[in-house]
Amino acid sequence: MSDAVSPEEVRHVGELARVDLDDDEVDQFTQQFGDILEYFETLDTVPEVDREADLTNVMRPDEERESLDHEAALENATETEDGYFKGPNVS
């Protein structure tokens, strides 16, 4: 466990978040925050990459094609009104 986080800091963060923490929770969060900071310290050991990644377009090219006609688009709609889909009222 890292000593980078003190119980006072955890209480301060709790106050900022307007969360009342009892002593057990402060101890638990102190441990968890320390563990999280250790994970970030581990990331500092990962070597940097000095080259640009080779990016390639993996998407297919756009192709124009016929769309549904108006009647076919509304064919399976449970309700329509004036040639449009009709959905439930939202209040």
From TrEMBL:
Q: What top-level class of enzyme does the UniProt entry assign? A: ligase
Region (Disordered) residue spans? 60-91
Keyword Cytoplasm listed: no
- Tell me, how does this one assemble? Heterotrimer of A, B and C subunits.
State the family named in the UniProt similarity comment for this chain.
Belongs to the GatC family.
- Family matches, as InterPro entries: Asp/Glu-ADT_sf_sub_c, GatC
Single GO molecular function: asparaginyl-tRNA synthase (glutamine-hydrolyzing) activity
Pfam families per UniProt: GatC (PF02686)
Q: Where is the composition biased (Basic and acidic residues)?
A: 60-73
Its function?
A: Allows the formation of correctly charged Asn-tRNA(Asn) or Gln-tRNA(Gln) through the transamidation of misacylated Asp-tRNA(Asn) or Glu-tRNA(Gln) in organisms which lack either or both of asparaginyl-tRNA or glutaminyl-tRNA synthetases. The reaction takes place in the presence of glutamine and ATP through an activated phospho-Asp-tRNA(Asn) or phospho-Glu-tRNA(Gln).
Q: Which UniProt keywords apply?
A: ATP-binding, Ligase, Nucleotide-binding, Protein biosynthesis, Transferase
Entry EC no(s): 6.3.5.-
Q: Which PANTHER family match?
A: GLUTAMYL-TRNA(GLN) AMIDOTRANSFERASE SUBUNIT C, MITOCHONDRIAL
Swiss-Prot/TrEMBL GO biological process terms? glutaminyl-tRNAGln biosynthesis via transamidation; regulation of translational fidelity; translation
Organism per entry: Natronorubrum sediminis
- What name does UniProt use for this protein? Aspartyl/glutamyl-tRNA(Asn/Gln) amidotransferase subunit C
What is catalyzed by this enzyme? L-aspartyl-tRNA(Asn) + L-glutamine + ATP + H2O = L-asparaginyl-tRNA(Asn) + L-glutamate + ADP + phosphate + 2 H(+); L-glutamyl-tRNA(Gln) + L-glutamine + ATP + H2O = L-glutaminyl-tRNA(Gln) + L-glutamate + ADP + phosphate + H(+)
